[in-house]
Amino acid sequence: MSVAQRLTNDLKSAMVSGDVRRRDVIRFLRSAVKNAEIDRRRDLTDAEIEDVIRTQIKQRRDSVEMFRRGGRDELADEEEAQIVILLAYLPQQIDEQELREIVRVQAEALGVSGPRDMGRLMPALMAATNGRAEGRMLSQLAREELERRSASSN
């Protein structure tokens, strides 16, 4: 079943069950997908819909951060609940330990040695994880690996 079909089915079941949060999150997501389809003038593929979902998750994570800084924990909690709903539409994410190993292997394969090589490492990591890891997490782990490699070579 395609992601678009799954969204439609899940929207119907959320409406029937009275799950207002899930209904609203799916409606908002479907609207974002529709806007992307209008921009591209064609239906989106599952991979493109997953990119839209990732964008929605990133926006909500940024909101959580701002709400927490502003002392609005109830709004941050709501955004986090919406993130959980959205994550269900993405492929299973790679856990942090496995990501660390992927970063180490890719860094070794590319022969990178320090922070200046971040531009070479990140594209390889994005390709290796194929959307199953958040860019922010990959970036953080890559930075740590490059710093470790830089310190060990000095």
Order of helices and strands: HHHHHHH
The total of beta strands comes to: 0
CATH topology of the largest domain: Hypothetical Protein Yqey, Chain: A, domain1
Given the C-alpha coordinates, what overall shape results?
Answer: globular
Mean pLDDT across the residues is 93
CATH architecture label of the largest domain: Orthogonal Bundle
What is the domain tally? 2
Would you kindly provide a written description of the structure presented here, covering whatever features stand out?
The protein has 154 residues and is mainly α. The protein folds into 2 domains: 3-87, Orthogonal Bundle (Hypothetical Protein Yqey, Chain: A, domain1); 96-153, Arc Repressor Mutant, subunit A (Orthogonal Bundle). It is built from 7 helices and no strands. It is globular.
